[in-house]
Amino acid sequence: MLFDVITIFPEFFTSILEHGVLKRGSAGGQVEIRIHDLRDSTDDRHHTVDDRPFGGGPGMVFKPEPLFRAVETLKAAALVEPARVVLLTPQGRLLTQAVAEELSRENHVVLISARYEGVDERVAEHLATDEISIGNYVLAGGELAAAVVMEAVTRLLPGVLGNEESAGQDSFAEVGNAEAGGILDCPHYTRPADLRGWKVPEVLLSGNHEEIRRWRRRQALEKTWRKRPELLERASLSEEDREMFEEIKHAATEPRL
């Protein structure tokens, strides 16, 4: 998979690409990440990428011409035209696990990292094929958002994590239920089995794989019910899940002696 990132701060990505999932994916050949300085696509001696908004108002707006030129240059040089030209903006659709999985099936994605007051609306209307937000808040620029998108997608590519089951067991990664958002992951424990009197649940030490599976599923359902109940409203639960959920709710309403 190829990511092309357009930014005015290419140096921002230097450290990010040298660590973790993105480094592993690049080293293993599952992903190629190329960073492009938007100022290289300007045609004036000052390399101007922004200007004041028509109609007045605070801040500066990214000019459309450099962005169009940058993306069109990438398209002309690519063997396969980018499947997605993604504008990272608070106005975009929210990045979810389902969106990350959707992007992971593409061969080539261009990410546009804007700054200041945003970009000329014609970029969104006529250049970008998708708009994505990483949350309901505003950042100073799209570079962090681009890094989040690339990591969320890269870790889903076959071979990147090493353990193929790992990504499928994450919170929000319910098999067959990605569009619904999935449910939260179950609790995890490791050595020591006893820390200051806080002991690992006995079932995890039992070696009984079926009991461990049921315990983990029940814990995941209970955690989701307590922390993110709205996810359960959209989740496709099995008959076993529903029985567990009824037991969880019943136990929560029983009076304590």
Which short descriptors sum up this protein?
5-stranded parallel sheet, 257 residues, Alpha/beta knot, alpha/beta, 2 domains, 16% strand, Trp Operon Repressor, Chain A, 10 helices, elongated, two-stranded antiparallel sheet
Plain-language structure description:
By secondary structure, the chain is α/β, with parallel strands linked by helices. The chain folds into two domains: 2-154, SPOUT methyltransferase, trefoil knot domain (Alpha/beta knot, 3-Layer(aba) Sandwich), CATH 3.40.1280.10; 169-253, Orthogonal Bundle (Trp Operon Repressor, Chain A). The chain contains ten helices and nine strands. A five-stranded parallel beta sheet has the order 2-1-6-5-7, sandwiched between helices. β5 (84-94), α4 and β6 (108-113) form a beta-alpha-beta unit. α4 crosses α6 and α8 (209-227) crosses α10. The longest helix has 19 residues, at 209-227. Mean pLDDT is 90; it is low at 175-181.
The helix content, as a percent range, equals 25-40%
Q: How is the main sheet built? A: 5 strands, parallel
Number of domains: 2
CATH architecture of the largest domain: 3-Layer(aba) Sandwich
Low-confidence stretches: 175-181
C-alpha termini separation:
58 Å
User: What is the tally of helical segments?
Assistant: 10
In the CATH hierarchy, the third-tier topology of the largest domain is known as: Alpha/beta knot
